[in-house]
Specification:
heterodimer; A: alpha+beta; 15 helices; B: alpha/beta; eleven-stranded mixed sheet; two-stranded antiparallel ribbon; 13 strands
């Protein structure tokens, strides 16, 4: 929908990524949504000063490297002022004017499958606000400080998107990237990944109309829906020969339409001022080299490799599930698999992508994985073994079921083969896939108590 | 008796502090200058701390250079559990939940809290007359101000209520009361003392400072390793130790234009000239003129008010201080906020918040704020250039001696602001400056002479002034 009626569509997105850091942006308070723990700075107690944590800066730089941003050697923090009960300091510490990242690109496919480059205008670090809670007490509102001063990376795209589908694709891409890099938990419903959109319609191609901002978008499909409904609304206004207001609107999930925000102030006057408590943020080459080693910045490369690997075994690859396939607990193994063609089997991919993530609660090492991979365990048994491994503290090898002797195996194979004379005939007549069928039958009986290769050899020798 | 002597003497006597505390409390309660606040709370705290300190062993006490000494803390340094108001009604119920670094350092070294000291509201003022808790007058001159904003810090020392005091200096707030109260007042290089726990007025200018009776006392404090880089304040720096070259001729910069200036009172000009003449006998006196210095007060007020409007934005009655509770109020949050701030902030503070908000508005930001930032940098560079050839700059601390309350009431804001023109340049440049009380007016009012050093050369500056003091005879005009 690059064009709606006679109007060209232009969209830009502001994405707020809640960085998954251990500490808050300017205090050593643990960064988390559950903690009742807050520090004096978070409540704006007089005299307490902000001290910049390193990890949010590292994550911002890592993101910048992944999208090829210009990483600024010198950037500055400033104060953005407004009065609101959930902003204890009376200002937000942000980087609107001299941000840490400038430029950058993200490749997406549009609805016709064509490659589209999305340009990032800049990305900056800033503090999240606290949360007002109005339904806890009947007479009062409450302020939850647990999220206050948590680090956000705000990624601002240029107005270079031309359809709701493109906008959604781009947002999903950034989401997948952030999760892949481990800089965000990606929980959209909890506000860890927030998207604001601005959109304008214009009859002339390449020109911008009146810009309207949409907030309160809580899922990717709502993003698409919000933009679609806003396009229709704007077109109706313009069709009627009226002018649009430059305004901020909220998306209403019930009506699936955008609604005007309660008028707060007509013009935003944030009285930006350099933050005198925080010296210039200096990033040197050494820092960048370190980040390159410690973060997975080659998302797009990995993503491509994944896609190829999945398609080789005709497994459907869903990018939005990437972070399910690829977790902190499995990524070391994945990296090895992606770089080691001999390990790239359908079984390996299935174990890593589908079987393990469900049960794994701690990181699995390569040797441990190889033990699992080589075993004859099928999905259910494999999960049982992993659960036992996690709870018992034994090694994986010790958790594997007792191996049967080759004589026992031979007995089972012969018992099974006699049940399938038809299939054996077909096999002997050259229908090779029947072998796989027979092996499957045996495997189900063996329940992982014999290595797959041994089962195969045994079946083959009994057939010949 | 010097601080060092007092400390040594205190080591000889068992329960030294507990014995002296009662006399101290009596003195403070009889004081008429208005220098000390929260008397009952501080007395109780003093008694408790004195007991604890006295219980230490001799070996422990001897390691504490400030054992036996009382310190008066300006009421904007957070001291855990104690009311800390910064002179503002908006913080009248604020009990600090933590210790400021300055207090932590002093108390670790054995100093006993002797008083919480009066000040202008949020350190905004030159005469200690903007706080809801009352004004501070010059001891012995009840009709005159003790100076501000650290008025309590000057007056408490002049009245001998405590052994030494802390203050904060944003544009002259330590040096001015030191001059009026005839004490030594030291504003360190910006960053030398941590700002952690010091309630902010204008963060890029605020510096904790010290006041003592004598330069020797100041040296005793500074030699006790109290200025260190603090990880809780990103703008703090480590002060290097002095590379003292004792027997040398100093290059002293002075401002000949001030001998003629109409903005400076005659007695002060004469004192200045006298000192310059005396120094000429042994040192190289170099006339200097600093470009843009005549704009320093304007630059200062633009930046200070902007930062103040930002730093004070947190006072909305939600998290601390006086509470925003008016159950009958039916307006919006913003209307309630406005009402609250109008009620609890004093007039001077409101004036500076308004000015700062105006300056920071998108309309004025570049023509006022950014211009002031540029000029400030220019001034910094000018001073840096001068200090390549000179050791110290000498000028009076204030163009006036302590004025009478009735004179102050006739001054306009602009007149009051402009009277800071000899202290603000060095705040803007972040340079160390000391005001020394070598002169008195005919009426017996203090005249301070200000020595300014190169950035971070605080120890060297102090050594240089001590050397000068030894050479010249102290005498009244």
């Amino acid at each position: 929908m690059k064009k709606y009626k006679e109007y060209f569509i232009t969209i830009g997105l502001e994405i707020h990524v809640a960085l998954n850091t251990k500490e808050k942006l300017f205090s050593s308070t643990p960064n988390g949504f559950s903690g009742e723990d807050f520090q004096l700075l978070d409540a704006g107690v007089p005299g307490v000063l902000p001290v910049l944590s390193s990890e949010p800066v590292e994550m911002a730089v890592a993101f910048g490297l992944a999208v090829n941003s210009d990483i600024k050697k010198v950037s500055f923090f400033e104060r953005k002022h407004y009065f609101y009960p959930d902003l204890p300091l009376g200002y937000q510490i942000t980087q609107q004017h001299e941000p840490i990242l400038v430029g950058g690109t993200v490749q997406i496919k549009d609805e016709d499958g064509k490659d589209v480059t999305v340009f990032i205008e800049h990305a900056h670090l800033e503090c999240d606000a606290a949360k007002s809670i109005h339904d806890l007490y009947s007479q009062y509102s409450a302020i939850d400080l647990s999220r206050c001063a948590s680090p956000l990376l705000e990624i601002v795209s240029t107005p270079c998107l031309h359809s709701p589908e493109e906008a959604k694709e781009y947002a999903k891409r950034v989401h997948a990237l952030s999760m892949f890099m481990g800089i965000c938990d990606g929980k959209i419903e909890e506000g860890s990944f927030r998207v604001d959109a601005s959109i304008s319609l214009c009859k002339q191609e390449g020109k911008l109309g009146t810009r309207v901002e949409i907030k309160n978008i809580s899922s990717f499909s709502f993003l698409e829906a919000a933009l679609q409904s806003e396009i229709r609304r704007q077109a109706d206004v313009l069709d009627a020969g009226k002018l649009l207001d430059m305004e901020t609107r909220l998306f209403d999930e019930k009506s699936m339409e955008t609604k005007p925000m309660r008028m707060k102030e007509t013009v935003d006057e944030y009285r930006y001022m350099p933050c005198p408590d925080i010296p210039a943020l200096i990033i040197d080459d050494e820092f960048i080299t370190d980040i390159k080693q410690r973060y997975d910045i080659s998302y797009f490369e990995y993503q491509q490799k994944f896609k190829e690997l999945f398609s080789r075994f005709s497994i459907k690859f869903d990018e939005s599930l990437f972070s399910v396939y690829w977790t902190d607990k499995t990524k070391k193994v994945w990296k090895h698999v992606l770089n080691t063609p001999s390990m790239q089997t359908e079984r390996t991919v299935r174990i890593l992508a589908f079987w393990l993530p469900e049960v794994l609660t701690k990181e699995i090492q390569l040797e441990e994985f190889i033990t699992l991979d080589k075993s004859a365990l099928q999905a259910k048994e494999l999960k049982d073994v992993v659960s036992l491994w996690l709870s018992s503290g034994k090694s994986i090898a010790e958790c594997l079921p007792q191996m049967m002797s080759s004589d026992d195996l031979k007995d089972i194979v012969q018992n099974i083969l006699v049940q399938f004379p038809e299939q054996i005939t077909k096999y002997k007549n050259g229908e090779v896939k029947m072998l796989q069928f027979l092996i499957g039958k045996v495997m189900a009986q063996v329940k992982g108590k014999s290595p797959a290769q041994e089962v195969k050899t045994c079946v083959e020798s009994c057939l010949s | 008796m010097s601080l060092h002597e007092k400390h040594l003497k205190s080591l000889e006597q068992k329960d030294f502090l507990q014995t002296r505390v009662e006399a101290d409390i009596f003195k403070i309660k009889s004081d008429k200058s208005g220098a000390c606040w929260h008397l009952d709370e501080v007395s109780a705290y003093m008694r408790k701390s004195a007991e604890k300190l006295d219980a230490l062993t001799y070996e422990e006490k001897i390691k504490m250079p400030f054992y036996g000494l009382t310190v008066g803390m300006k009421d904007l340094f957070c001291i855990s559990g104690l009311t800390t108001t910064a002179g503002s009604k908006i913080l009248s119920s604020f009990k600090a939940p933590y210790d400021s670094t300055v207090w932590d350092t002093l108390s670790q070294k054995g100093a006993l809290l002797g008083a919480k000291l009066a000040m202008d509201e949020f350190a905004m003022g030159s005469f200690s007359n903007t706080s809801y808790l009352g004004r501070v007058s010059l001891p012995g001159f009840p009709d005159r101000t003790a100076g501000g904003s650290s008025g309590g810090s000057g007056a408490a020392l002049e009245a001998n209520l405590v052994d030494f005091t802390t203050g904060s200096d944003t544009g002259g707030s330590v040096r001015l009361p030191a001059a009026f109260c005839s004490q030594v007042g030291y504003k360190p290089s910006y960053g030398a003392f941590s700002r952690y726990g010091m309630i902010a007025y204008a963060s890029s200018l605020d510096q904790a400072g010290l006041l003592t009776h004598t330069l020797q006392d100041m040296k005793y404090l500074m030699d006790s390793d109290i200025a260190n880089k603090d990880i809780k304040d990103m703008t703090s720096r480590q002060l290097p130790h002095a590379s003292v070259q004792k027997s040398r001729k100093l290059k002293v910069g002075y401002f000949p234009e001030f001998f003629e200036s109409d903005a400076i009172e005659v007695e002060i000009k004469l004192a200045y000239q006298d000192l310059v003449n005396k120094l000429k006998l042994t040192h190289d006196l170099i006339p200097v003129s600093i470009q843009v210095m005549d704009k320093a007060a304007q630059i200062y007020y633009i930046l200070a008010c902007s930062e103040a409007s930002s730093n004070l934005a947190r006072y909305q009655g939600v998290f601390f201080g006086e509470k925003l509770v008016d159950e009958k109020f039916e307006g919006t949050y913003w209307e309630q906020c406005a009402q609250y701030r109008s009620k609890f902030f004093g007039i001077e503070v409101q004036k500076r918040i308004m000015l700062g908000s105006f300056i920071l508005s998108s309309e004025n930001f570049s023509s006022m704020y950014q211009k002031a930032v540029k000029l400030r940098q220019f001034l910094k560079d000018e001073f840096a250039r001068q200090f390549q050839t000179i050791d110290t700059l000498l000028l009076p601390t204030s163009p006036i001696v302590a004025p009478k309350w009735e004179e102050i009431s006739k001054m306009t804001s602009a007149q009051i602001y402009m009277s800071d023109f000899m202290t603000v340049p060095f705040s803007l440049a972040g340079l160390p400056a000391l005001s020394v009380p070598w002169y008195k007016s005919k009426e017996g009012l203090g005249i301070g002479m200000q020595f300014v050093g190169a950035y971070m050369q605080d120890h060297q500056l102090l050594e240089d002034i001590l050397k000068i003091e030894m050479e010249i005879t102290k005498e009244a005009l």
